[in-house]
Amino acid sequence: MEFVYAPGQTPLDLDEIGGLKPRHITTQEQLNAWEQVNILAGRVWAFRQKKAAVLEENFIRRLHLKMFGDTWTWAGTFRQTDKSIGVPSEQVAMRLTQLLENTRYQRDHAAFPPDELVIRFHHQLVFIHPFANGNGRHSRLMADILGQRLGCPAFTWGAGVDLFKPRIARQQYPEALRAADRGNIAPLLAFARS
Questions:
Q1: Torsion angle defined by CA atoms of residues 163, 168, 171 and 173, in that order, rounded to the nearest 10 degrees
Q2: Cα angle: 139, vertex 145, 146; to 5 degrees
Q3: Where are the domains of the chain?
Q4: Looking at residues 161-177, what average pLDDT do you find?
Q5: Which residues belong to any copy of the Fido domain (predicted)?
Q6: Looking at residues 62-69, what average pLDDT do you find?
Q7: Residue 158 pLDDT > 60, yes or no?
Q8: What's 14-193's CATH class?
């Protein structure tokens, strides 16, 4: 199977591709459809976890596993390879721990309005890029869950937007992330609410 990556998607290495569970998948479209079913099941699971502490490494890994576990053998496991984006693989666990501690502190001390706190968390989770693939989809769902816990209205990116289809959102999202990388969170906040 040859993968055709959309702009902003992280390419997989050969070992990661070898972790594809369903052997009947031969096209990118089949993979996208298969993953979407798995992601929806993960979403249902996540929103049923009313008492789970979402700002914990275990929850982050379990959510990735629930979202991609029927697709990839390495789902829920931190990446072992470096990518063109994200922190070096050996820093993933440490940087994620720092992010979780910082976000809990910011939440507990009302350092930012809830929307901004959630979007800053989302941006940093994407920046760390803990998994081989699925980081954008995973971090948007994490933001949806955290936002719900903080009483935020649902973000529009989580309302069934298919980011695999060519559309303006597919272009705006990476641009908003790059602006946040430069310290300007406003475009990402606007995208999440557009």
A1: -60
A2: 85
A3: 14-193
A4: 68
A5: 55-194
A6: 98
A7: no
A8: mainly alpha
Q: What count of Cα atoms within 13 Å lies in the side-chain half-sphere of residue 179? A: 15
The encoded tokens of residue 136 equal 């954008």
Q: Is residue 141 within 8 Å of 63, Cβ to Cβ?
A: yes
Say if residue 190's pLDDT is above 80.
yes
Burial class (CB in 10 A: 0-12, 13-18, 19+), 5: exposed
d(CA 194, CA 181): 20
Strand-pair partners of 20: 72
Of all residues in the chain, the percent with pLDDT exceeding 90 is: 74
DSSP β-bridge partners for residue 72: 20
Distance (Å, whole) CA 157 – CA 173: 10
